[in-house]
């Protein structure tokens, strides 16, 4: 069983605050790490896929970093806006013969107050 | 709109019954994944198909089965339904079979077993 842990479980910030959350995953047998954004009443939408240690990805005010050696990824949101309110999911893809499926964490629920 | 179509959106049935959930992947995507989202769990991987063949299996119960047809649409069959099978079932698709591929999610089927 692969353990993908996300912290915190939930987070409340004020509009304009910058914030970050963590995804921890097994440091061995790494293949890929995904971040998804899941708004209420919608379906998860891909933000980033990272495959190399040290990868950094950016999309607007959202960025992510990856450390495969220690098994963690950070997602950063700069200047949070109410429309950033969503659950942020990470997913770990293992390598070797099992590099077909993604194991998701339970997510971090972000609420941005205006 | 992700381009992934799931039907029906809602399904209410009784214990012991059998239901079929349907998914049409994005145009050009050959991989289809099924995930189950229940109250206390994250997205639980059930099964993946690639170009008509089963590629990876997760925590799928023996009462559940799936297939991918030549036109690449997929069906998830749930039989001898129990109360605990009530959940949101997502289908996702990707271009290729590997876990480094970005997933595109459908809007889900909410199954209620009464």
Provide tags for this entry.
heterodimer, A: 114 residues, mainly beta, 6-stranded mixed β-sheet, B: 114 residues, 4-stranded antiparallel β-sheet, 51% strand
- Number of continuous helical runs of chain A: 0
Nearest-integer average pLDDT of chain B: 94
How is the biggest beta sheet of chain B arranged? 7 strands, mixed
Helix amount of chain A: under 10%
Q: Please tell me how large the radius of gyration of chain A is.
A: 14 Å
Report the β-strand fraction of chain B as a percent range: over 45%
Fraction in helix of chain B: under 10%
Question: Largest interface, per-chain counts?
Answer: A-B, 26 and 27 residues
Give the helices and strands of chain A as they follow along the chain: EEEEEEEEEEE
Q: Between the first and last Cα atoms of chain A, what is the distance in angstroms?
A: 40 Å
| Quantity of strands of chain B, as a count | 11
User: How large is the radius of gyration of chain B?
Assistant: 13 Å
Secondary-structure-based class of chain B equals: mainly beta
């Amino acid at each position: 069983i692969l353990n993908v842990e996300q912290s915190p479980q939930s987070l409340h910030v004020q509009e304009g605050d910058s914030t970050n959350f963590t995804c921890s995953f097994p440091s061995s047998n790494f293949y890929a790490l995904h971040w998804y954004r899941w708004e209420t009443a919608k379906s998860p939408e891909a933000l980033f896929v990272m495959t190399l240690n040290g990868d950094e990805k950016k999309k607007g005010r959202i960025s992510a970093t990856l450390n495969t050696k220690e098994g963690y990824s950070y997602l950063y949101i700069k200047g949070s806006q109410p429309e950033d309110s969503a659950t942020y999911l990470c997913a770990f893809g293992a390598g070797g013969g099992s590099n077909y499926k993604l194991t998701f964490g339970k997510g971090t629920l972000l609420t941005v107050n205006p | 709109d992700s381009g992934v179509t799931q039907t029906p959106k809602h399904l209410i049935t009784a214990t012991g019954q059998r239901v079929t959930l349907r998914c049409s992947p994005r145009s050009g995507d050959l991989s289809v994944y099924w995930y189950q989202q229940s109250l206390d769990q994250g997205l639980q991987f059930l099964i993946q198909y690639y170009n008509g063949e089963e590629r990876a299996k997760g925590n799928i119960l023996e009462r559940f089965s799936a297939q991918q047809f030549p036109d690449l649409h997929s069906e998830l069959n749930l039989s001898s339904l129990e109360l605990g099978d009530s959940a949101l079932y997502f289908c996702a698709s990707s271009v290729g079979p590997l876990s480094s591929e970005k997933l595109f999610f459908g809007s889900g089927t909410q199954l209620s077993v009464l």
